[in-house]
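Sat 14:20. Reprocessing the chain from the morning session after the first attempt stalled halfway. Input below, unchanged.
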Amino acid sequence: MVKLSGTTVFILLLILVFAANGFPDEGMWMPHQMKELDLAARGLKMDPGGLYKTDGTGLMSAVVYLGGGTAAFVSAEGLILTNHHVAFGAIQRASDKEHDYITHGFLAKTKAEEIPARGYIADVLLGYEDVTAEFLKRLKPSMSPEKRYKTIDRLKKRLIARAEKKSKDTRCYLKPMYSGNRYYLFKFKRLRDIRVVYAPPQSIGNYGGDIDNWMWPRHTCDFSFLRAYVSRDNVGAAYSSDNVPYHPTSFFKISLEGVKPGDFTFVMGYPGRTNRNDTSAELQADIDDMRQRIELYRDLIRFYEKAGENNRGVQIKYASLIKGLNNGLKNRTGMLEGLEKQGILEKKKTFEKKWMQWVEQEPARKKKYGNILTEIDNFIQQNADFYRKDQRLSILVGRRRGQALLRQAHLVYRIVEERQKPDIKRESGFQERDMFRLKTRVELAERRYDPEVDKAYFKYRLKKLLKQPRSQCPKALIHVLEKGPEGIDKHVDGLYAATILKDPKRRLELIQLKPAARLKLNDPFINLAADLEKELNVSREKKKILDQQKSDLKKVYMASLLEMHKGKIAPDANSSIRFTYGPVKEYHPRDAVTYLPITTLKGVMQKETGKYPFEVPEKLKKLYQARDFGQYMDKNLEDIPTCFLNTTNVTGGNSGSPTLNANGEQVGIVFDMTYESVIGDYYIIPVLQRTISVDIRYVLFITDKFANAHHLLKEMKIR
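Finished this time. Tokens:
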């Protein structure tokens, strides 16, 4: 027997603790980190060097950042494959009572029939570079948080402006990693003309609805086809009938071989946000926030579902909002449940005790890192009230939960005010590079709100504020709240009767005005937005400094983790390109329960009730009864495989990511995680972490046999 020294035992204990925290093998890796993963030993058969190339020709350039989600090029003609729920906004905006593409689906039989995916933009990765040195040259330890923020903001804008000058369709993002210990500049080709090609009916693309959301076993065929167009000189341009299909440098080959348990798979995409490197104090603050958000989501869902109870037109306009709210509600509910059930807060605290032992091993470490957890904890406690009030204030004009006409008034007001400044001094999001998207937001607002429902919602929110202490309410609304419930109704009715903002053409005209001309209009909604902006601006400026102060503290903590692991940590997700891998695998969520990793069309029929969300289209039933499966049947299963699980690491933003086999061929599309996996945003538990993908054979079966979209199969070279 080998006797272990005390130091060796301590190191082994640290390894076990860090492994439980997802170090070092679990993670969403940046492309340049892949070479350290020994992917060939794990099952990758293709050359790893073919995944990411600095000239933009690697397979990673076939992965598209699309409207907050991910997608993939699957043909040389710019055909894009993504989730039905990622493309849902485009489907909803194109729908009305006469053309209900949500319910019935949409198919363009020719390119000429493809319809604009209004509001959608596709960013295609060209490459990225480490620009940390540029920041280190300018950031000094003696700087105040305010000066540090301004220095970072100014440098960020300059680096982006310099890179975007090279081409008019280049779009850049500057992303801090490890809480500002590294900075990377990502370069994309921006494609602004995206069109809908095929979307299945919601009875297929959203089968199971919110009941099955985040759950396994799953049977949703969550996919849609889009297409990217460019000008004739290959420049990403706004929609035009003269535009031509984009020819990507790379696109994915589709495999009909499928997957079986144990097969190596990997995913490339744009995960939105994770918090795996957070401290226990940060996690506790997020838990408190989740509880508040859950109540808010429930409240909003109740209001909007009741508003559209007997009106299909209203249902269509608010379908995307309600879908997002239900998704967020179930996610946060599962998150809270999982964090508590798995004791994640205590696990974080245990990790921090072991981390502190490591820190105290050396005097230099203790001096550098010894107080940082206490400082982060103190910061959170001291500023909790401010952040809560800022959130309540921001909700009034928020893009997703704010009242639509007030939100538009505030957006118009800010665009006009920001355009008076030199471009470099404008707020991020309001520079000239952002104007196309801002104008699109103004123009398309009409497709997602109903004036009467919006009016009722504004009254509802104001009456909710009556229950709050006046000190917690926006100053611009105090005089309205003092009128009481009946006075609120009259005041809001007056706002809607007098405003010109109900006309989208007028809203677009207004953003071209000078402030003096805007003042002369004396529009009540814009006047209210201007009054709210005074308070919002004060809060926004304070939040910038506080966020920077917290970032400075977190940077020190992250530096300690990087030092401890010699840099071999995947940075938290922040909507930048990432790589994750793992086998197709079952899991055991609780005692005596085993979930197999593959579902079939048989399960679709078993769940069928004849009512939404488990209503199977008659044509699909007939195909199943006739066993008209074509080449898409799995010979071992003797059925159409519908969905499968693997152990990859994903989160919101990964929706639509291609799931690939060992040869780099597409075998599925990521669309969800299991209910037990949602805590992976904070803490990975490998035996429970599972990603859900729709099997590509189910996608092709629906495209071929159900939709008769044979031209798309031919384009993808499916024989």
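Residues 56 and 420 are 37 Å apart (CA to CA).
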